[in-house]
Amino acid sequence: MIGELNHRVKNLLGVVAGIAHMTAKSSASLADFEPAFSGRLMALGKAHEILTAATWERASLQTLVDDLLGTMATADPPRATANGPNILLEPKHVLSVSMILHELMTNALKYGALSVPNGHISLSWAVDHKGLSIEWLETGLVSLEQPQRKGFGTKMIERTVAHELKGTSKTHWRPDGLAFSFSFTPTTGG
């Protein structure tokens, strides 16, 4: 039991150090660094809470999504909706998906659908013989254009999908909003 705890703490500290390093590298000042780093740590902390409640076994994707969307999903009218089958994810996938969705939500609040009055996010997922596919769709923007450069969040999302999840992702910049999807094969076992 102590060995497992030690292993998890070491992994967590490695993740935190990586997040700190990459956030610092992409921040122009300490004032930029602090909220970005704090938000990422809070997302990681929430994922750990969900995993702890599930005794570090498989955890519900729906629980993760509900926590992320929070009041955006319960507003009248809702600013975000989610739809997908009940699926349980391995702890490593919970952490990765949590960080991906946090970055998407942060970008939506700053630049995307949640930065405009009538913007909306639709989050959906499906499972088939190829694995799990998750789609993030933002609408309600006008004349959205693809950014000239990729920010840290976008790079982190792409790296996490490719390296942590061993999956694929697609980004489509539409005039009325962003469409982002990613797919991976959930593993079994711890």
Automatic annotation (TrEMBL):
UniProt keyword Transferase present: yes
InterPro entries: HATPase_C_sf (IPR036890), Sig_transdc_His_kinase_HWE (IPR011102)
UniProt xrefs under Gene3D superfamilies: Histidine kinase-like ATPase, C-terminal domain (3.30.565.10)
Ranges of residues in domain Signal transduction histidine kinase HWE region: 4-86
EC class: transferase
Catalytic activity from the UniProt record: ATP + protein L-histidine = ADP + protein N-phospho-L-histidine
Listed Pfam families: HWE_HK
Keywords: ATP-binding, Kinase, Nucleotide-binding, Phosphoprotein, Transferase
Keyword Transmembrane helix part of the UniProt annotation: no
Domain of life: Bacteria
The EC number(s) this enzyme carries: 2.7.13.3
GO molecular function, one term: protein histidine kinase activity
Protein name: histidine kinase
